């Protein structure tokens, strides 16, 4: 996915899109793996961000200043060199946007310290889109004061606090595993919308996960057991389609 509208000078700029008190942001995805770059950009665009992609450091340097990103999602290992070096060259060209680096899971400790310096963050590959989205929003909240749109999600008597990593139903804490937390967050973001097992799998599990869709059903069942003890069922099965978060229907 490539989006080229609304080019501005690179760096931090005034808010461009607001939903209530919500400020959206422009995110530049730079990754040499075209499938990964497209998947990440599409997922972030679905979350409401404006996105653009590049497949190398040279392409990022050529198009980044015109796009004017508020944040970079940048692979450390690009086809034409280091993502860290590409980011440094972007900064020298006037692009002060923070970065979420995509790095190898076994990266050395000194490299990780370098990747998290100056307000940046890193996500080891492979990663789930939910994890990446959470890191992106955390960096934006630190660096752009207006971006706090989804730190707290709620539906009926169910509340999820992203910053605190807590879930409550009827004011009572619910202890969830990390995958359950990410799954519930995705359902809350799409309350009232039927989600297929494939959509859930693509957003909650790591992008290279090779397991089947049965894992979604198992996790949904576990999540229901923890939530249904506190009130009426909110996660409903739509036969032969998937799941939806909604209030129970009368009768």
TrEMBL record:
A Pfam family reported for this protein in Swiss-Prot or TrEMBL: Response_reg
Keywords, sorted A to Z: DNA-binding, Phosphoprotein
Residue numbers carrying 4-aspartylphosphate: 75
Domain of life: Bacteria
Keyword DNA-binding appears in the UniProt entry: yes
An individual GO BP term: regulation of DNA-templated transcription
GO cellular component, one term: cytosol
Annotated protein name in UniProt: Two-component system OmpR family response regulator
Residues within the DNA-binding region(s): 150-247
Domain Response regulatory: 26-140
């Amino acid at each position: 996915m490539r989006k080229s509208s609304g080019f501005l000078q690179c760096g931090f700029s005034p808010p461009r899109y607001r939903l209530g008190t919500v400020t959206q942001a422009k995110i530049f995805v730079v990754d040499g793996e075209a499938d990964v770059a497209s998947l990440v950009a599409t997922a972030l665009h679905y979350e409401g961000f404006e996105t653009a992609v590049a497949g190398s450091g040279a392409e990022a340097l050529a198009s980044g200043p015109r796009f004017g990103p508020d944040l970079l999602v940048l692979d450390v290992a690009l086809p034409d060199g280091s993502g860290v070096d590409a980011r440094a060259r972007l900064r020298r060209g006037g692009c002060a946007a923070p970065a979420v680096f995509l790095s190898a899971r076994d990266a050395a400790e000194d490299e990780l310290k370098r990747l998290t310096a100056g307000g940046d963050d890193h996500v080891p590959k492979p990663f789930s889109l939910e994890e990446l989205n959470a890191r992106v929003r955390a960096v934006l909240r630190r660096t752009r004061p207006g971006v706090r749109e989804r730190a707290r999600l709620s539906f009926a008597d169910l509340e999820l606090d992203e910053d605190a990593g807590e879930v409550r139903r009827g004011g009572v804490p619910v202890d969830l595993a990390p995958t359950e937390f990410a799954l519930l967050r995705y359902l809350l973001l799409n309350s009232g919308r039927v989600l297929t097992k494939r959509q859930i799998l693509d957003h909650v599990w790591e992008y290279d996960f090779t397991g089947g869709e049965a894992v979604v059903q198992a996790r949904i069942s576990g999540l229901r057991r923890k939530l249904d003890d506190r009130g009426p069922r909110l996660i409903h099965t739509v036969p032969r389609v998937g799941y939806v978060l909604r209030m129970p229907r009368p009768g």
